[in-house]
Amino acid sequence: xxxxxxxxxxxxxxxxxxxxxxxTINDDLLALEQDKEDxxxxxxxxxxxxxxxxxxxxxxxxxxxxxxxxxxxxxxxIRDHKLNLSExxxxxxxxxxxxxxxxxxxxxxxxxxxxTILAMFDDLYAAALLSAEMSEDQEIFREKxxxxxxIAAPSAETKRSETE
Length: 164
Known about the structure:
Blueprint: H1 8-34, H2 39-59, H3 62-79, H4 87-108, H5 116-144, H6 156-163
């Protein structure tokens, strides 16, 4: 936290505002999980994360601001169709929002921000991308593999010759 930010009223306002944004983000993520094609929800989530990032940066919570920026980057890739909204990416978003909420909770208890979450997010992001790529490769493989021909039931003539 910025040493100049010692105003409890400003911090209290930030915490309340961030809490509302985090609740909205969670609700929108649940809706997005049901309808992965709704880019309007991605935009809404982006705006809420952006609001947290901006207010955190203004009052000196640099880790929350930087972490929010990482989530924004991820959402921008989804919005710009550079990243598919796979199950692993949805899981990453839920996990990232939980991590962000934990940071806000720590601030509310007077604890320092944990800058280790920045590297942790990078690791989770890389794992989610790898998982998404593997999933896409499997789908592509399935599409290129011709379906197996149906197994024909033995004809009546074949059955007769087997019994003779």
